[in-house]
Sequence to fold (246 residues):
Amino acid sequence: MIIEGNSVAECWLRALQKIATQKAGDELSPLMLSINMTDEQPQYQEALEKELNAFLKSVGQPCIETTASTIFPVSLSGGKQSIYERYDRNWKYIKKDVRNRKGTYFRRFTSYGEKYHQGTNQLENIITTFNGTEGLRKPIRRRSALIATTFDPLLDHTPQPLLGFPCLQQVCFIPNGNETLSMNAIYAMQHLSTRAYGNYLGLIRLGQFMAKEMNLEFVKLNAMISVLGLGRMTKGQAKQFVGNYA
Fold:
């Protein structure tokens, strides 16, 4: 199934409608969701986000912004080095949250493998690879070099019946010529009602950050989801939710 639109709100709501109205089951598998970057936002977006945050609070789940910040901490403004360093300094506090006991996506992007070596900043490696280093390294545009992974077999291949993290497996940055950038995100599993909206928002912010550092314009997010589950919301609740914005 393919869902395409011009905003997180539009695409998220379309996916919710698909699950809410299908005859059997509360999953879509697989799903390709594509969000084009435009300045146009639906009029219902603010009301939808407010209602979704209220739902998330009622089921004991983090709000949209909290989920988005696990992928890219937009609150840490400034240049890339400042963001890396400030997040690293704050990590001792962030990891105290039990939900972050295995890490966050941004932590794995910027310190992959820290459990068994110093940790690799994948984002910085991608930026340096693409731009080159003055006097040291020429730009390399090999597409397989523009991938950041979050899944770590040494940590994540466990016999636990429910792991919870990481559902996002990797992101691929795709330059379109010398002007624009798209990003592909690959999920093994995603919960639509509890995580997806914040996931998409965080991914877009990550894409915008990387595009700026690569001197490109971020134009599209593609999320490839093996299994999209409804999550904590019932199909009845989903139908009512969709009806409010039809």
About this structure: Residues 55 and 61 are 9 Å apart (CA to CA).
